[in-house]
Design brief:
Layout lengths: L1 H20 L7 H10 L3 H22 L3 H23 L1
Length: 90
């Protein structure tokens, strides 16, 4: 359960970033995704911001002492962190 939450949390964070930053400008989701297709250097930056959602989820699960789920969220966060590092290097 934790790994699934950890993998879906940044996706929700990515969409939240869209809702806050680009929807008020009137841009569609398609044009939002095209920005990342055209500017690949933005992908690690936005992924890093999206990981903040995992931090919130991790904090909530540790507060409610759901340690196994929190461990899965942490593992998924580390997988995302490795992917971000790989994207920055290449």
């Amino acid at each position: 359960m934790g790994i699934v939450l950890g993998l879906l949390g940044p996706v929700a964070g990515f969409m939240l970033f869209y809702l806050i930053k680009f929807l008020p400008l009137g841009q569609s989701v398609g044009s939002y995704l095209n920005i990342f297709k055209d500017n690949r250097f933005l992908i690690p930056k936005v992924m890093s911001l999206s990981l903040l959602a995992n931090g919130v989820i991790f904090f909530l699960y540790t507060q409610y002492q759901k340690d196994e789920t929190a461990r899965g969220i942490l593992v998924a966060t580390l997988v995302y962190a490795i992917a971000i590092i790989v994207l920055k290097i290449t």
